[in-house]
Structures are given as structure tokens and as C-alpha cells.
């Protein structure tokens, strides 16, 4: 029993940290004597309904789940802060953009779109990148994706898009993938999807980590300055870690090996103090540019190439604290596109306008009450004053009598009257930009939205040959899962408008004997746009092994100095290291000492590492040359174009894995410990892509 009761009024009831000496209580605070046995009539029952303690426990358990998000169900949240590096008062009056050095707390949730809460992290999918900025003027939510365009141009099509991508309603599968008839049927009937299709068939849809992907606000928004002047803006997140993806065969294996690969990666790097950072960039342009641009800036299936409107960096997001409680924070966080602050405004993008309705609506369903803003993760960190009241789970209830406005309570406490409460402020409050609006009420798609292929083609031709091959392979994989021939043909018909070479690769890959006719474009001609190098991952590689992970496969008798040299070299490059061994207990190295392992070999396959090293004696290598997990460790690393370091004694394993005769410059022999440094330096390239080029020829 506590000595004193805290006689507080209101406030959110919080469980204090649970200590070792605390007595278990019911939700009403009554102490519990036995948490193992239901009250019963005699030792062999029956159980008594009277047991209020057992019933309360089961009752609470029965109601633990809330509906998962209808899209973006699987996600991972993390705290951080945004620091402004460059003030932009000429563009925006928002406080968050006006004081250099100011730090604004944030919460970011990364997600996949199609899969349910328990689906694997490396599904081929768009990734959500949603950030809540707890600014001094209220919460601003930038609810973006890792791809700068979207499948559709009008929000009314969203339920159909998502229905087609999610499991078919009759059979309830396939989960977390688009490789099925319904999805390809829908997109092939919606040519506006073609640009997005290019992006999701690229390696952008299988990022190596949340840390290594870009983020985009997608829509055109407005920035409004203190004089009420507006400019258009597109928001970009640029990872300081650089861009990196896995390849499809690797993704398939990671999903089996570690379905939590992305969330584990984020958790581990933050726990290790390696905080990921993104620069916030803006592309700012005016009405005149919007008028002169080849495409409509309100069309979310289009980008504005960075070469045309450069991205100005204005600040940095640092993610530096994992959540304390997944449900309370990651699950209950509610992002809404309508959460904007003075100085930021919407544009007339029809997709954005639809989203503004959807997010608030879905939060009510998911969190069960309009008071979800009282949940700590959603509550603004600035003062909140309004006359909203009551409702389920109301936690912050206002004091006093005045609960309406206007009112004539004085606000002057001396005359014994009640305070009058808050008032709107024309100077400090949000005012919508006075964009002129006129026109008949119609249901039409603007003519200016009609070009569906030019930017799709631009994306494709901006990729390196390796990336183009991956896109071709992805399309072949997906369309091979489509059963209906007419859908496959319709898709190849679209590809012919994007790139004939790609259309041919895909047609051949799915065994199509006759090339279907090209789809009829809604608008002719399809423009030949210049390459945009910013669209390629490999052209923008980080050239650093920092934040990446080396797997060292050790065995009895392995050279202890070499293992240590590798560990040190990786560490000084800012990389992480895991030791893999035949047993999790580790292995006795050449110095006679046991080195503990992080993973047993079949729990630490090479797909979870960025590069691998083999340090073992000859006898072990001979044994492993016949051991399936060891063979896979090497042959997968080879197939996935990874750098492979090996001590000369490990040759028998390379032979057993069938790669000894195909060794290329991606193999580095570790003849003496000094070689460890050279190996890690080589790993800065992340992959030895020449290996793929050779395989292709
Ligand atoms: Fe969303 N989207 N969306 N979306 N979206 C949701 O809101 C919706 C779109 C995005 O981590 C839902 O809270 C419509 C584009 C992210 O909690 C829902 C349309 C972009 C997240 C919803 C779109 C996004 C969501 C489901 C078509 C990138 C996860 C749960 C107009 C710019 C946020 C929820 C989180 C979540 C509706 C299209 C990003 C149903 C109607 C485009 C990152 O409200």
C-alpha cells in the first residue's frame, strides 16, 4: 500500500514504471493474491463466475486489439528531432522554418502499404515515410512515401486500387504482394499508374533498410509567407546514409529468414547510437513555372525533375530514440494530411484533397474516439485551447463554465466571473491562401493530366543497365504470376509505350510469342524527356560502408588476428559486425580462445549482411564445402554480387559452393591481417555489380 495517495485531478492515468517490489493489482488498483488459479468450487472445479479478478483480466485481454490500418498496417515508429539549417521566411511564416538551429521534436513511422500487420518487411511495395513535427504552432504531419509519385490521380480511385492490391476477397491471398491478377488487371486498365509501376518494379520497392531510402511528400503543397504570398513546394527527404536496396532473390530469402529485417535494423542501429539522418529538401516554384512546366504540378503521378528545379536543403531530421511501447506509440500514432500549420497550405491536387478527408475519418474508426488527440503520441507539445469537449476517453477536460464562443464572461478574475476562454487570432491563426477558385461543377479528369508514359520512360532511361535488368526481371516475375493472358498482353502493350526494349525483355521473359499492339495513349505524342540521374539509386550510391553490416563466418582454428583485424577495420569504417559460426557458442580460434558467435550459420545466412568474410582452417572449410547452410552462405553472397573476403585456407568452401572457378575482383584474399582494411575499403562500393553484368552477357 502506498504511504500517500496523489490527490490529482484529471490528467492521463499512467502506469508508473513497474518495480520489482510492486504488488500486482487489478485495473481498479486492488491488490491480487493469486494470479495463477481461477476461483473454483473445490480444487477440481467447476470455476466460479464470481471470480472478478480472473474475469477482469480476461475481459481486458479480449479487447486488446484495435483495427489495423486499412493500408500501411505494418509499420515501425521512431522518435527524433528536426533541426533547421536554413531559415526561409521569404517562403513561409511557419515557426519551424524561421529560426536556424531550432530543434522540433518528431515522430516518424515507416511502413509497407499492402501487407497486414504481420507481413514480412521485404515485400515488394511502396514504403510509407510519415513524420509528425510537434511544432510550436501545432502538429504538422508530412505523410509521404519513399516514391515521389502515386498510382492514381484522383482519390476516388483509391479503394479500388487498394482492393486490387490486397488479398483477393474469395481466397484471402496472396498477402503483401502485387504479383497477382487483380492488381495487374486494375493497373493495366489505369494507364495513369504506369509511371508508378516503373518505380515499384525498380529496386526502390525493396530497400535494404528504412535508413537507406528517400522520402517524398509527393503532392505539391504551398508555402505562404508573412505577407500572404504563396509559392508551390514539393518536399524531399534525402538520407545522409545514402541510398541502397537489396535484389529480389535476396528479398525473398530475407523474408523467410527474418521477416522483421527492417524494424530490427532500425532498432539495432539506434540502440548502437548510429542515428540515421535525413536532410529535408524543398523544390520551390511559382505559378509561372507551373504554367510553363510540361505537366500539371497538381498531378501526383508526375515529378518535377531535380535537374529542372533543384532541391534546396533546409534542415536535418535525426532519429535517435526507439519507442518505449510499440502499441502506445507506433500503433496509436495518427497521421493526418490535414494537420498543417500557419505558413504551409494545401494545393488543389485532387489526391491530396481526398486524403484530407480520409485520414481523420479512418483515425476515428481505428482509435475509437475523436479524442485520439489526447493520446500522448498524438498530443501537440504546444498549448491546446478550444471548446471541444466530452466524447469517449476524454482525457484533457477544460476547467470552468465557458464552453462556447462568443461569450461574455469577462476573462477578468477580479470580478468573480469565470475566465472567458480562448479566442481566435487573425494575426497568429491559420489563414487559407486565397487561391482563386471558379468553374462549373463537373466530374472530369483534367486534360493536363493525360500524359501517362513520358515520365515513365524518363524514369526507365535514367537507370543504370543493372537497374534496368532488375526492372525487367521484376516485371517478368510479377506477370508470370498473372494467370490471365489478356492482362499480361495489356501490360506489355503499355510497356511498348514506355520502352520497346523493356517490352521485348518482358514479352520474352513470360514466353509471349507475338508482341501485342501498343496501348493507345490518351495523349499523343509521348515526349522524349532527358535522363534524370537523380532517379537512379546506383548513380547516387553512398560510397561508404558506414552503417552497413559485415558477417564473418568463423570456425575452429580460424586465424584470430584476422578476425580481429576485420572487426577493427569494419568498426573504424562505422560498420557493424556479426560473427557467424557452426554453433552459437562460437568457435575456438588459432589463439586457443573461444570467440562467441552472434548467429549460428543457418540463423545468419549471408542475405542479412552487406559483405561477408570467411575465416577458418582447411579442415573446417572442407567440411563446410559439403554443408548446405555454409554452401548457401557463399553461393548467395556470390549471386547477390557481394564482396567476399576469404583466408586461403577457406578455398575448399569456395569450391564446394561452386564459385572457385568464377572468382572475380569482388573476391578479396586475406593473406595477411593488413588485407582486412583493403577489403573494408572495397566494400564502400556496397556491391560488385560487374558480376551481374558478366552473368548477363
Ligand atoms: Fe495514405 N492512407 N492514402 N497515402 N498513407 C493511410 O490513414 C489514403 C497516399 C500514407 O504510418 C490511411 O492512418 C487515400 C499517398 C502513409 O500511420 C488512410 C489516398 C501517400 C500512411 C489513407 C492515399 C500516402 C497512409 C490508413 C489516395 C504518399 C501511413 C491508416 C488519395 C504521399 C501513416 C491511416 C502511418 C495511411 C488514405 C494515398 C501515404 C486510409 C484516400 C499518395 C505514409 O487514411
Automatic annotation (TrEMBL):
The family database entries (PROSITE patterns) matched by this protein are listed as: CATALASE_1 (PS00437), CATALASE_2 (PS00438), CATALASE_3 (PS51402)
**One GO MF term attached to the UniProt entry:** catalase activity
Region: Disordered, residue numbers: 1-25, 398-427
What's in the keyword line of the UniProt record? Answer: Heme, Hydrogen peroxide, Iron, Metal-binding, Oxidoreductase, Peroxidase
Cofactor dependency: heme
Q: Which reaction does it catalyse?
A: 2 H2O2 = O2 + 2 H2O
Q: Which family does it belong to?
A: Belongs to the catalase family. HPII subfamily.
- Protein name as it appears in the record: Catalase
The protein's organism comes out as: Qipengyuania benthica
